[in-house]
Write a structure and sequence with these properties.
Layout: H1 2-25, E1 27-33, E2 41-47, E3 51-57, H2 67-70, E4 74-79, H3 82-94, E5 113-120, E6 123-129, H4 135-163, H5 168-181, H6 191-198, H7 205-217
Antiparallel strand pairs: 1-2, 1-5, 2-3, 3-4, 5-6
């Protein structure tokens, strides 16, 4: 009996170690394309420790009225929360590393092409879809869209701080509302610019107050 308990403990330790190594080396990549939107293309690469990299490409002809804020592409490292990251990789494994059909083939409005790709010690996989009948896949796509909105808002805030400090008031009002409704998620990805705004005596008090509110909600 004692030998069995020891053997079971060794097996459990090996299993935990293998799972930990798999988590450390796993990578999730999201690729989104819709020529009618700005940005028309973005990618987010996420590692299992929450570190990642985001890029976006704007349309050559920005929508009227957005040129001042949305002219630049974004290319930066990001850090996402442990809870969000764990959920992403859990969904990937529950769906066979995305080695399954994601596209519903239903006649629905075009929502942009999304490609989920996974690579890790246990294998690789990918699937591409406009709309998925699978609730978890579709919700994950919507969540990634909300994270992207946050990252893009951070880039807009940086540009406004440099070129149009008065414009920060309206943009921060929008961001607080978007965070409250869930349209913007993972506020931790833009912590740096929020800290700068919260501590900048040269911006409006409303801007500083909203920055502090978002930081507190994000737990940073």
């Amino acid at each position: 009996m004692k030998a069995f308990i020891i053997a079971a403990a060794v097996f459990l330790a090996i299993a935990v170690s293998m799972a930990a190594r798999a988590d450390q080396n796993a990578v999730m990549h999201v690729d989104f394309t819709d020529s009618q939107l700005n940005p028309s293309h973005w990618t987010l690469t996420l590692h299992s420790d929450g570190s990642g990299h985001f890029t976006s490409e704007m349309n050559e002809t920005p929508e009227k009225g957005t040129e001042a804020v949305d002219a630049a592409n974004v290319d930066r490292d990001v850090q996402l929360s442990a809870g969000f990251t764990a959920h992403v990789f859990e969904v990937a494994r529950q769906h066979h590393l995305f080695n399954e059909p994601c596209e519903s083939r239903l006649k629905v409005a075009f929502e942009g092409w999304k490609k989920f790709s996974y690579a890790g010690p246990e294998g690789t996989g990918s699937c591409t879809f406009n709309y998925s009948k699978d609730k978890e896949i579709e919700e994950l796509a919507e969540t990634f869209g909300a994270v992207t909105e946050t990252i893009l808002e951070g880039a807009r805030l940086e540009k406004l701080l440099q070129h149009d400090r008065l414009g920060l008031d309206k943009e921060m009002e929008y961001l607080v509302d978007a965070a409250g409704s869930g349209r913007a998620q993972e506020i931790c990805t833009i912590r740096q610019i929020l800290v700068r705004l919260a501590e900048d005596d040269e911006v409006l008090e409303r801007v500083r107050k909203r920055a502090r509110l978002l930081l507190s909600q994000a737990g940073t």
